[in-house]
Design goal:
Elements (H helix, E strand, L loop, with lengths): L3 E6 L18 E3 L8 E4 L2 E4 L10 H4 L4 H10 L4 E5 L11 H20 L5 E6 L5 H13 L4 E3 L3 E2 L2 E2 L6 H25 L2 E9 L2 E8 L2 E6 L3 E7 L2 E11 L2 E11 L2 E9 L1
Parallel strand pairs: 1-5, 5-6, 6-7, 10-16
Antiparallel strand pairs: 2-3, 3-4, 8-9, 10-13, 11-12, 11-14, 14-15
Helix pairs in contact: 3-4, 4-5
Length: 269
Amino acid sequence: MPTIDADAHVIESDDTWKYIPDEKLRPFIISPGGGRPQNWLVDGRVFHRGVNFDRNLRIDICEMRDIQGRLKHMDELEIDVQVLYPSLFLRPLTRKAEVENALCRSYNQWVIDVCKKGEGRLEWIAQVPVIDIPSTVTEIEFARANGACGIFLRGMIDDKRLSNPAFFPIYAAAEKAATDAKAAAKAAEDAAKPGFVNLTILGDFDEEVVVSVSGNEVARTTGKTIGLERVSPGPTKIAARAKKGTKVLDVSTIIDVKPGLQDCKLTLS
């Protein structure tokens, strides 16, 4: 059973915001000097940067600039999979929907690209905007389509608890996204299941016939009906070869193998 760190955080960097086309909306780093911590300037407000991480861990690992280093550190901790959460978004950053929408989309696109390099060991939680609820729904749909395994919401949004009916559209969208994701996973699982081909060989031939699937011999038989088990799904070449006297008889066809049982006929002539 894999060991999953279900609450691993990243430290945002300048790379996180490079997906925002309008530079005026991008956060930027303030460095006060004197060894003091850096800050983010976001929409005219200042926020601490990178204060909640292990100082013994290299910053490029925390910022996901060294993904192989991150994976190696996970190996040291005997962690198979990490689920990545944001750090900066633990507090509200702006009152402007335009700014919040841009920040969330850029963060999500950044972490999507990070996880693509994670060798299947990095999962991510989407950061969604909450000022404009239709934008929340749009971002949830974007997150689901790009592999997010959840969404992040603060416990209080403005002066409202998460039980406030104003947020019900968010939960409806999240529920739909989860249902769609389960359906897609089920469809993918079903599509990957092997097929079973009931092969009938027609024609006049002597004794033994050799049957191959995708160039690999799978059977030799003197019968004219054979069951091919656990054939990989997708376009597959099925061939038969036999003799009639001194003449070699060869035939093949391409079939689209699907899960379940299907028939195939080959005529040797």
